[in-house]
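Cont'd.
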Amino acid sequence: MGQYIAPLRDMQFVLHELLQVEEELKAMPKHAETNRELIDQVLEEGGKFTSQILFPLNHSGDREGCHLDKVTHEVTPPKGFKAAYKQYVEAGWPSVSCDPEFGGQGLPLVVNNSFYEMMNSANQAWTMYPGLSHGAYECLHEHGTPEQKALYLPKLVSGEWTGTMCLTESHCGTDLGMLRSKAEPQADGSFKISGGKIFISAGEHDMSENIIHLVLARLPDAPAGTKGISLFVVPKFLPNADGSVGARNPIFCGAIEEKMGIHGNSTCQMNMDEATGWLIGQPNKGLNAMFVMMNAARLGVGMQSLGLTEVAFQNALVYAKDRLQMRSLTGVKAPEKAADPIIVHPDVRRMLLTAKAYAEGGRAFSSYVALQIDKELNHPDEDVRKEAADEVALLTPIIKSFLTDNGWIATSEALQVYGGHGFIAEWGMEQYVRDSRINMIYEGTNTIQSLDLLGRKVLMDNGAKLRKFGAKVQAFVEENGTDEAMAEFITPLADLGDKVTKLTMEIGMKAFQNPDEVGAAAVPYLRVVGHMVYAYFFARMAKIALEKQDGGDKFYQSKLGTARFYFARLLPETAMLIRQARSGSASLMALDADLF
Amino acid sequence: MGQYIAPLRDMQFVLHELLQVEEELKAMPKHAETNRELIDQVLEEGGKFTSQILFPLNHSGDREGCHLDKVTHEVTPPKGFKAAYKQYVEAGWPSVSCDPEFGGQGLPLVVNNSFYEMMNSANQAWTMYPGLSHGAYECLHEHGTPEQKALYLPKLVSGEWTGTMCLTESHCGTDLGMLRSKAEPQADGSFKISGGKIFISAGEHDMSENIIHLVLARLPDAPAGTKGISLFVVPKFLPNADGSVGARNPIFCGAIEEKMGIHGNSTCQMNMDEATGWLIGQPNKGLNAMFVMMNAARLGVGMQSLGLTEVAFQNALVYAKDRLQMRSLTGVKAPEKAADPIIVHPDVRRMLLTAKAYAEGGRAFSSYVALQIDKELNHPDEDVRKEAADEVALLTPIIKSFLTDNGWIATSEALQVYGGHGFIAEWGMEQYVRDSRINMIYEGTNTIQSLDLLGRKVLMDNGAKLRKFGAKVQAFVEENGTDEAMAEFITPLADLGDKVTKLTMEIGMKAFQNPDEVGAAAVPYLRVVGHMVYAYFFARMAKIALEKQDGGDKFYQSKLGTARFYFARLLPETAMLIRQARSGSASLMALDADLF
């Protein structure tokens, strides 16, 4: 059933050596006490919890799935899920990065993010239960009234209650402007909410005492489209003023979806029949309020695929060292054995290194973004906050899309290392592939992410945010431009930076005349920028590794080898992507729909 | 649950307009009578059978899977599979391209191949039961004694009996030289065979009266490695001389694998405990005999993914025309509806056209190869037979690997068109993705195919076979070099042809010094050559479409549009692949295994 060992060494490398988070956090009064020792302790404990408690439930959870009692509408998650959640709550994990005002530990997101990677490596389906909760926490924390905060946040922070996001309806997912669920105002200030929602992750289960649904619906007088959507909090059990749970609210699970993967998570159709809810934020401004949650969720989805990439890599590596098959083309390597371990074969190494490079690149990049969010939220200097916010806005769609596409590639390569055994459930690899597939879809499909990046974050902004990030890349290129040892990284990075600039301008010009040019270029464009970001971080990591490689710690040789592989084998994808992005809309739009 | 409609128009285009098979078959006495009318009739009937009988069992078969009775060792396939097989046999489908001497209809493979595409579109898991049979038929037809042929072939041709290939053991798949199953000679000329096999597709079921296992095992005095492997026929029931079935032979299914996909097919662990078998061909030459079967099977696996690509495309297209979501970026297209159908969006079109282009490219290419096999087997001119055989040898690993990689890409894109619904089982799209994943693995992983192409078929042959195929491409380029309307296709095709030549020479030189250079380059190299082949066929198809597009049949506009998309969006992958293939083995081999 495989293994999962938290990659503590690499996480520490990223946090302490690459990003120097201790230093960065010192500048934020809220996090000034978060030193390296504390961070490492959290990571170590997180590694134990995830590998010992969550990982053993991953495969069994996939095989068993969730069960709905059609009479009571109660959902039972797979065996062990509830007990693991109890341990999770008792250990205080839900509160790690939550506000101390509501019982949180107040640790920075950049630390919690690494823990979240571990949880997803160990068990994505399980992690979605508390993951969704955290989104509800953030949304209420930002937009709730003081009373709502006082009522809900302590319970969400402690983990006694969990949360969900109820957005999608059967006829609308991407296009939320079409949604139909209705909210009727009541005399007491509450609302009666009716309608049907689908694809509600962790929508119903018995792991927590109460489930706090955040629901999008329309007020009676609401304008059509996205400007007429409001956000409501609709608890499964109506809370009493003292925080105890009261009457059952008529928001029921009508069915559980049968899915390709994440079987351990209950993906529910939710029916509301005059369920009681309360408005969050302003009327008709529900999408704005929801965006807080969605941006956090997009980072979270990237972390899901990063987790899967890491665990798939680890297992494929163990298999590749163990499995004996054929001899090396350059001569026998293990004469004492009936055949050589398959890690001697160049193409097996290509598969392994693809997963390894995507794991390490994704870890560096996503930790960087998490740190920027900490700055955005907690840095005392407004300019720093603003700059961090701009970067987070620019990079969030890349996190969501690039990490999840890469997770699909990496888990599939890791499966392939196993040959026929990769296709067999008991080895566990095929589950990683199946689980990873949803990450390219939910929280905004990867196409939507690419339109968000190219259309909204780059072109509507006249490229300002991209130029700011590009200036960081450029500064690194200039700092290291005369270092011969760095040339193998700096030259292609500088070249790609120039190409991104030219490509952006070219598409911008074309889009001015034909908006379909944005839609035609967006997906390859996002991957080009994603590779520029990874190339930048791999170059920075290589610089550290070059400086430290002679110190005896083989970790740095490994890091250098991965960086070199990345530049040799993965970065060349940009040669394809740039051609695709430049090829324009003509070949896509020429045919009438009936000629397809 | 979706739809499947056999793509008769495109099949007819490929067979009659592109390949002109009627003309080609006239040159082969065995097939001289196979005219267009007959071919179209077979295709039409095939379309009805596959869409009406097989397709309705595809999703239910996936959900139900196969069941093993652990006491009797009998396996029950999903509901309806047995009845469909009865109809298949009664309609005479098993015999289409079999030898008339044994009851076959003697039709060319190029016709049967199109039918096989349809079967796989409709139901890959079901199709593997008769598919494996056909492999056993071909192996016995080529290597059996006259008595073996007389006993087994009529039953396999009629479909009363089915067959399997028993190669893999738990410790060896790719590396068959390590296999351990043993065959003890008996006084009566038979053998007692013992051992365990895994991953035996269609290994046990109740659909046919008898199952004829072709089993690889070692004779007592056999040399080690691949030179000590012999092939045996091991029937489930020992046949009586009159063709009736006799005693149960101790070759039993011990377990059914739980797999990622193809759930409707019984993937069995087979245990042999002194099962009675008979040698096929020469002692210790079993792998040679098996290769007949494996080459046919490799073409067959390519057709599996082609079938999945087609059906996934068809369904995604229906959905994209039906699903309303957002407005076109260039203005409202369906003002009478709440939103535009998603086929207005450029990136949805990119996904659809990717699947469409891979389906049409794969259909042209695989039909061409099937016709070459007909020539190899039945052309009266020995030189033509030899040339066809060389082409088949060169192109078979490309069929297997390029079509199955593309099937994975295409089915995943088709799933993505559905958004969240693509992940839900009832829509059927996720099954196509799961089913397609095995095709990149079995019958020799795609890595093994790429080594076969680059190592054995190209370099060991000093590039002769590749040059011969390249000369055809070159001739087409020269014929059309002055046709301005063709320039958009001819220019990139000619350019890629040159690049393939240079790339091959470069790798050849490097491989001379370091054999790992072959393993490092093989996978991207195969895809480069695959794209050259597709570009050649798309250019040829575009030429026909350009000539006929003004005749009023919109099919030709569609074909031209697909060809233009292929050149604009898919062919640019070669820019990446060539860089990867040229990047060499250094970045793969640098790290010690313990530094991964």
